[in-house]
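Kindly review this protein for my students:
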Amino acid sequence: MIELLIAARKDAGLTQSEVGARLKQRQTFVSKYELGERRLDAAEFLTVCRAIGANAHDLIKRAEDSM
């Protein structure tokens, strides 16, 4: 799932700093969940998806299909 979030962020042409700003968080917040040092709860996941312009349902479906 994290790899899909990273790919979606990069596909959107966004840096970690830009995503952090959209989330009203520091860049380190983005870095920590992308490195797996911090987990996202469901609400945070949806917020991150909105911030990067990704469809949460599609990301979850792709993650399930890759299992």
